[in-house]
Amino acid sequence: MTISVVTDNPLFSIAIRAIIESQYPESPIVVTDTVRKAIELSGTSKFQVMILDIGASDAKDTILIEDFKTINPQAAILVNLGDQTQFMYKFIRAGVTALFSNKSLPEEISEGLRHAENNTRYISSDVQQQLLFHIVDKPINRTLTKREEFMADLLLANKSHQQVANITGTTSKSVGYYKRRIFRKLEVDNLVDLAVKLNKVLVNKESGN
């Protein structure tokens, strides 16, 4: 399999090459310093795996990741979060195959590569601990008032503003105010992100509000 490595960090490049070459000695490795360049090279080389270092200048642009996946539909994407594990939700939503960080062991990166062969999800143990910390030890919804929690639950049930207003005995305008306040508190800008932050399921909307 042909592997794309996107990084502008020479040390990371050397380390990841060593892991790949010990596990897949016959696999071609193409190193670029941006996702854009990896996309350009996809015209001549189809990639089965991308290993993305979050330190690359355009690594956090999930639209570019989607573009790469469109050109390389079978490609698994492994992301090194470095020490920026706060971006794990962003990449989980983007549908990447594996996540690891600077604290991950080489064996865990190798395991991520094995999962990449079958395009199945893998998260290293240290990133898993961060996920559990946010979900269990420090639930973010404690920053919301009881009323805001209730509003959030109704919004995640895909109730319209008017439906929420009727249920809570307020106005549609007030619901909009609460929604903006909830989003601001939890640093999100859409219901999908809100569901992830609160560890809740977003109900699929069958018809528009």
UniProtKB/TrEMBL annotation:
One of its GO terms (biological process) is regulation of DNA-templated transcription. Keywords: DNA-binding, Transcription, Transcription regulation. It comes from the Bacteria. Residues 137-202 form the HTH luxR-type domain. InterPro entries: CheY-like_superfamily, Sig_transdc_resp-reg_C-effctor, Tscrpt_reg_LuxR_C, WalR-like. This is Response regulator transcription factor. The keyword DNA repair does not apply.
